[in-house]
Amino acid sequence: MEDHRTSVRSKLWGPALVALLLVGLSVNALAAATPASAGRANDSFNKGDLIVSGVVGLGVAGTYGHTTSPSICVEVEKAITPEWSVGGVLGYASSQQKYSYYYGEYGWKYTYTIIGARGGYHFVKFIKNPKLDGYAGATLGYNHVTVSDIGNNAYSRYYTYKASDSYLLYGIHAGGRYFFNPNFAGQAELGYGIGFLSVGLCWKF
Questions:
Q1: Which domain holds residue 63?
Q2: Number of domains in the chain
Q3: 29 located within any domain
Q4: How does pLDDT run across 123-176, given as a tens digit for each residue?
Q5: CATH no. for residue 57?
Q6: Quick one: three-class SS letters along the chain?
């Protein structure tokens, strides 16, 4: 049978790149429209900052069937320079394939446990509003896939269609944070990998 993971990836690279282009244009427009301030008190991003985010995303690359749970992730990010950050992500998602036939239903449920490393560049030199943090980056990780039968188990096992093991997960993203106070912000991202669109909240320490 067709490898749905490969099919999904090939179809979604185009929209993902378009989304990133739109985000990049928006960041440039925002930077041009934001007046420079004399100081950057309560900066959104500084060397040494530790940012912890909880996010929900739509569209994990390489999943099977239709989504039953969006990606739910915890992200940790450390500012190692005034512009660059490194960190990690831990997430969960699920999907299923379900079919009907004369005697009932059969199918498979898939769960995905995601662990990976993230790195990003922050546009602090271009965005002068101290409450805004615009950034772009990449993710490299591992997606551990487990599969279980649903419906008529005997019929499912007869066809023995299973996920093709766990796999390497890679992605790109661009997004922004708006800080409601020096330590708390809302976050939104577009990209390819763990989520084509993700939103969440983050805390800075």
A1: 4-198
A2: 1
A3: yes
A4: 988 998 999 999 999 999 999 999 888 776 555 555 555 555 688 999 999 999
A5: 2.40.160.20
A6: CCCHHHHHHHHHHHHHHHHHHHHHHHHHHHHHHCCCCCCCCCCCCCCCCEEEEEEEEECCCCCCCEEEEEEEEEEEEEECCCCEEEEEEEEEEEEEEEEEECCEEEEEEEEEEEEEEEEEEECCCCCCCCCEEEEEEEEEEEEEEEEEEEECHHHHHHHCCCCCCCEEEEEEEEEEEEEEECCEEEEEEEEECCCCEEEEEEEEC
Whether residue 123 is contained in a domain is answered as yes
Domain assignment present for residue 69? The answer is yes
- Rounded to two decimals, what is the model's pTM? 0.73
Residue 44 falls inside a structural domain: yes
